Amino acid sequence: MTRYMVIEHFHENCLERIYSRFRAMGRMLPEDLIYLDSWLVLDGRCCFQLMETDRFESFAEWTVRWDDLADFEIFELGDRPAA
User: Fold this and answer.
1) In Å, how far are 46, 47, 48, 60, 62 from 42, measured between CA atoms?
2) First and final CA of the chain: distance in angstroms?
3) How many CB atoms sit inside 10 A of residue 33's CB?
4) pLDDT tens-place string over residues 36-73
5) In CATH terms, is domain 2-76 a member of 3.30.70.100?
6) What is the pLDDT of residues 5-15, one digit of tens each?
7) What whole-number distance in Å separates Cα of residue 1 and Cα of residue 75?
8) How much is the pTM?
9) Strand, coil or helix: 29
10) Where does the chain have alpha helices with state H?
11) Which residue(s) pair with 73 in the sheet?
């Protein structure tokens, strides 16, 4: 599985709508896109999500469900360098 860091940039004045949809419908992830963890910035403008999948195309299926409320940056992660 390949890991990805997703940065969700919430549209202005949409935080209440985002949480309302999340409470009603969950993350709405395709079956092969696996959520691992997330972090919300203190001012609530964006969220970092760690996810993994073997099929990058799953991100397009997921983000279309949220693109009316947020913009997305998706970065493939590599292995950590040896210490």
Assistant:
1) 9, 10, 12, 27, 25
2) 23
3) 21
4) 999 999 988 999 999 999 999 999 999 999 999 999 99
5) yes
6) 999 999 999 98
7) 14
8) 0.88
9) coil
10) 15-25, 58-63
11) 7
Tell me what pLDDT residue 35 has. Answer: 97
Q: Does 75 score more than 80 pLDDT?
A: yes
Is the per-residue pLDDT at 81 higher than 80?
no
Tell me the C-alpha to C-alpha distance, in Å, between residue 23 and each of 2, 36, 45, 54, 78. 28, 18, 18, 27, 32
**With 0-12 CB in 10 A as exposed, 13-18 as middle and 19+ as buried, what is 50?**
middle
Q: Helix and strand tally (H, E) in the chain?
A: 2, 4
d(CA 79, CA 76): 10
Q: Scanning the structure block, which residue is given the tokens 């390949």?
A: 2
The confidence score (pLDDT) of residue 80 equals 77
Give me the mean pLDDT over the 14-18 stretch: 92
Residue 60 tokens, joined: 């397009």
Tell me the two tokens of residue 21. 């949809």
